[in-house]
Amino acid sequence: MSNSRKIRRYKMYHRMETPSGESFFQKAIDYISGHIADLLVAAVILVVGYFLVKFLTRLTVRALEMSKIPVNAQGMLLAVIKILLYTLFLFMAASALGLDVTGAVAITSVASLGVSLAVQDLVKNFIGGLQLLSTKPFKIGDYVTVGDHEGIVKDIDMFYTYLTMYDNKHVYIPNSQMANAVIMNYTAENELRLDLVFSIGYDDDFEKAKAVIEKVIADNPLAIHPEKATVRMCAHSASSVDIAVKVWVEKQNYWDLNYDMYEKVKAAFDAAGITIPYPQVTVNTPKEKQ
To answer: Can you give the pTM of this predicted structure?
Structure first.
């Protein structure tokens, strides 16, 4: 062996010695021999913890598969649960070795607080999504109104609910807002009531107009339960007599019947000589004194 190689080994050996001359390896051996029981307990905790985490993970996967939680949300939940469990068993093993884990717990708590503040909006949206999936105020394919937005629900994921409006615009609403919003679901039931108002002039025959509207309803195949339809006078407006019309329709035919009623009632009024008034102002001028 060359002299340079011997010198390198000599220096390496002495770098691993403590100031007292005791080698690092010797101190490690002494520590292990003096803490065999603690090391065995820590090893048992880690081994048992590993298999326990795998067992709990399998149970969690089965529970999530039977739930209505989206697949991507299931993966996120599973990852969070595994991290928490592994961290717990690591702290338990460190404590069994006599290590002070108070500082580590404090650092972990501070780090968790910082992360939670940074992603609090995402967390709120995630929790909102879970709330929507559990309470089920609507489902994919329903027509809903949420605040100023209305449309068909296309998807509900971890953080957003997606609506497609009738002009084909897409609206992305955070789940935290959806969970706290007033939601009107038009298609929760198979049958809906269509409410309309038609106006006639004060000189027109109300009973005649009523009969015309009732015939339009009876002749339209989209109107269901025509015997339950309501056609009644509802207001004496400034320039017209208003007639409330309430007719039942299957949810998929709601808008078609809405447009049919406006078009066919207008045509029937014209054929029957019934006027649809527009705002009028009568001006009376005083006569000049002779």
So the answer is: 0.53
